[in-house]
Recover the amino acids of this structure.
């Protein structure tokens, strides 16, 4: 195969070299060509001389003579080089083509057996990253049969709803504008103009409520069964953090439509935070960016809602899942 | 790896059996959400009038999941009402380190169930009360 490649390359290089030399030579010979004698050409073609025919006003100028004609009709170019160069260049190209076709056919006879593209892609990745063994271990982990009960689904449903929230939230973020002037109108735009916008907003709204319900239900299940006990303490801690983050999602997301309900619900909710002793004022000012809800509050809640809290949630979810995976689900007594 | 998965226990493989079960649940929830979305096309979530800081509505309420908290705060001194949920959250957070003895009998789970049920009833009652008041 390497030998074949080398031969093809050598042939190609020879072809290019010969072609370049011949073109150079032809160019030099062409450079000596003087301006053709058009009058002579017209005479030999049986046409009247151009100078006799008057340039009539209003007529377009006579077409420019094809310079290529001179070597075929006028007969000034009687040289051998032009046809010779053409024959050599195109002949060499044809020979190289025939050579390549013949060699390819001989290679086709000794070809490797065909493998499906997916298998090839898998082998390509496996050769570089060697993930087949760990992946197999990951996928073949036995799951106890007793955990096929509905109350073991609650955490999974919560994470599924989180994925739904991410997708619909990104869809809404394409149209939402987080300023007091534009927020309300952009929600109206989503509900009335955007195709399926009302459906996406409805799903985002109810999936958010469902996430809080499912998160709480999952927590109660874990509490009642006693799955928070050793060795799963940190699992519980990350889980409670996730519930708090879910509530924070709700708090920050509720303000975004910037209607009366959103505004006053957020006012009341931040007031609850503000009534804490010692750090109450600090919490209030941090949440509202000032003493009252305004444009800065909306901006801050939006940033928290779409950047900070999702990142924190994904981090805690990753930890939560890895720990569950490592320790398995606790078998109740 | 899992100390409570004995080798003689009946198991199903994670892939594809368990993943299929999970996918069925996800599919069911997804269909439910699509139905909700289709309903939303004709009955959208909607908006109230635009926010007006000068015009306080008659019944100001937080989101439903903060209603119970809001209701507690109405009847307690302001600072106590705000500190109580924080203490409760911290307590819940560190609960595994307080209740760290492994269960010996099923009785403990039953006690926790009753405690949870009572707490949930109180929570739901407070939420409903906050909603109607």
């Amino acid at each position: 195969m390497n030998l074949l490649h080398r031969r093809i390359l050598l042939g190609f290089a020879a072809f290019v070299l010969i072609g370049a030399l011949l073109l150079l030579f032809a160019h030099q010979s062409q450079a000596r060509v003087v301006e053709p004698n058009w009058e002579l050409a017209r005479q030999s073609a049986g046409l009247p001389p151009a100078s006799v025919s008057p340039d009539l006003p209003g007529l377009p100028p006579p077409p420019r003579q094809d310079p290529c004609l001179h070597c075929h009709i006028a007969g000034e170019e009687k040289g051998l080089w032009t046809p010779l160069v053409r024959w050599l260049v195109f002949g060499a190209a044809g020979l190289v083509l025939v050579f390549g076709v013949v060699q390819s056919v001989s290679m086709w006879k000794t070809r490797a057996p065909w493998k499906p593209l997916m298998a090839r892609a898998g082998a390509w990745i496996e050769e570089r990253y060697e993930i087949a063994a760990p992946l197999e271990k990951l996928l073949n982990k036995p799951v106890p049969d007793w955990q096929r009960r509905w109350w073991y689904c609650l955490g999974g449903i919560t994470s599924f709803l989180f994925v739904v929230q991410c997708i619909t939230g990104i869809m809404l973020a394409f149209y939402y504008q987080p300023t007091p002037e534009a927020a309300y109108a952009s929600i109206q735009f989503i509900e009335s103009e955007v195709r399926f916008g009302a459906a996406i907003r409805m799903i985002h709204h109810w999936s958010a409520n469902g996430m809080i319900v499912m998160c709480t239900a999952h927590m109660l299940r874990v509490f009642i069964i006693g799955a928070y006990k050793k060795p799963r303490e940190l699992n519980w801690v990350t889980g409670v953090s996730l519930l708090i983050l879910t509530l924070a999602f709700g708090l920050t997301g509720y303000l975004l439509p910037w209607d009366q309900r959103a505004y006053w619900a957020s006012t009341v909710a931040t007031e609850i935070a503000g009534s804490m002793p010692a750090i109450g004022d600090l919490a209030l000012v941090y949440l509202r960016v000032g003493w009252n809800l305004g444009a800065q509050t909306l901006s801050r809640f939006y940033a928290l809602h779409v950047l900070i809290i999702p990142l924190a949630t994904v981090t805690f979810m990753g930890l939560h899942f890895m720990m569950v995976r490592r320790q398995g689900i606790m078998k109740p007594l | 790896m899992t100390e409570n998965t004995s080798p003689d226990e009946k198991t199903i493989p994670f892939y594809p059996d368990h993943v299929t079960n999970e996918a069925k649940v996800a599919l069911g929830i997804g269909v439910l959400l699509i139905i909700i979305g289709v309903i939303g096309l004709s009955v959208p979530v909607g908006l109230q009038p635009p926010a007006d800081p000068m015009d306080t509505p008659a019944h100001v309420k937080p989101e439903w999941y903060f209603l119970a908290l809001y209701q507690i705060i109405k009847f307690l001194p302001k600072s106590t009402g705000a500190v109580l949920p924080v203490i409760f959250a911290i307590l819940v957070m560190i609960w595994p380190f307080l209740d760290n003895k492994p269960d010996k009998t099923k009785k403990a789970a039953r006690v926790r169930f009753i405690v949870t049920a009572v707490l949930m009833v109180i929570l739901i009652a407070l939420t409903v009360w906050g909603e109607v008041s």
